[in-house]
Amino acid sequence: MHQPVVLITGASRGIGAATALLAGARGYAVCVNYVNNKAAADAVVDAIIIGGGKAIAVAADVAVESDVISLFETVDAKLGPLTALVNNAGILEKQMQLAQMDVARLQRIFTTNIIGSFICAREAVKRMSTNSGGSGGAIVNVSSVAARIGGAGEYVDYAASKGAIDTMTIGLAKEVIDQGIRVNAVRPGVIYTDIHASGGEAGRVVKDSIPMRRGGRADEVAQAILWLLSDQASYSTGTFIDVAGGR
Ligand code: NAP
Q1: Full domain range(s) for residue 230
Q2: Alpha carbon distance 122, 117 (integer Å)
Q3: What's the CATH number where 133 sits?
Q4: pLDDT score for 174
Q5: For position 206, what pLDDT does the model report?
Q6: Nearest-angstrom CA–CA distance, 142 and 229
Q7: Whose CA is nearest to atom 17 of ligand 1?
Q8: Residue nearest to atom 39 of ligand 1 (CA)
Q9: Among 24, 108, 145, 197, which is most buried by a count of CB atoms within 10 Å?
Q10: In ligand 1, which atom is closest to the CA atom of 195?
Q11: Active site residue 158
């Protein structure tokens, strides 16, 4: 049997990096995608290789279609047939009310978080679909509890982008199940990563609003992602795991 191959977008830091490390340890050949931070991506690749795994780092902006196409072509050439995609890359901007948001910001958020996930899913389906000679596979989208809560006063744009990801998860799951592909999502709560600095609140983990009274760790989210990718989740598609401490 071929080694399973996973492409994880935004895997140089945070939840994506934790997912890459766990996937490497579980026997996947891993493509660690990043946009700017080559040193961080290389460190994730080195850690996987030191652990006896196989990994490559590939720069690509998921918001740019030509970048995404060459990212997938690099995986084809260097790792072999893709069996799993984690649509993890996502951005957040400074906290503000919707009434203050300009169109440039909305375009950045929606292009990266929604269109980026859509075109990565498209490229993955083309390769995995049994209709086009693939052997099936699994996609996990990284949404957010913000999709349920709405992000009021902070980032309704970001929350709405994750709402779109939830809807895509449900629709695409039904569309490709006959092609051997499962599509699911995780919805993290507040996880200790760098993303909160972009929101203007680097120390964000509002314990009072979290029933479990703590923030989550990236590796706790990675566990849910790896389960959804695995054959243990063989009867799950179009569904969600909230990793949010009860929030
Ligand atoms: P993070 O620590 O800020 O890391 C972001 C990662 O995405 C980095 O690897 C970054 O690459 C990459 N990236 C950013 N824009 C990209 C682009 N246009 N193309 C390709 N890669 C890009 O983020 P995180 O907190 O781990 O978040 C990961 C996902 O979880 C996001 O979708 C986020 O919305 C979601 N999430 C996070 C939380 C949380 O509390 N942290 C909660 C709910 C959902 P570089 O290193 O090259 O910059």
Answers
A1: 5-243
A2: 9
A3: 3.40.50.720
A4: 98
A5: 66
A6: 12
A7: 61
A8: 191
A9: 24
A10: 3
A11: yes
57 ligand 1 Cβ < 6 A? no
CB 124 within 8 A of CB 7: yes
pTM of the model: 0.98
Residue of 195, 205, 219 best suited for mutating to test ligand 1, as the one with most atoms within 8 Å of CB:
195
Strand order in the sheet with 29-34: 54-59, 29-34, 5-8, 84-87, 137-142, 181-188, 240-243
C-alpha 175/C-alpha 173 separation (Å) is 5
d(CA 38, CA 44): 10
State the Cα torsion 115-121-127-131 to the nearest 10°.
-110
- 152, two tokens: 């009021």
pLDDT at 1: 63
Judge contact between 229 and 5, C-beta under 8 A. no
Domains of the chain: total = 1
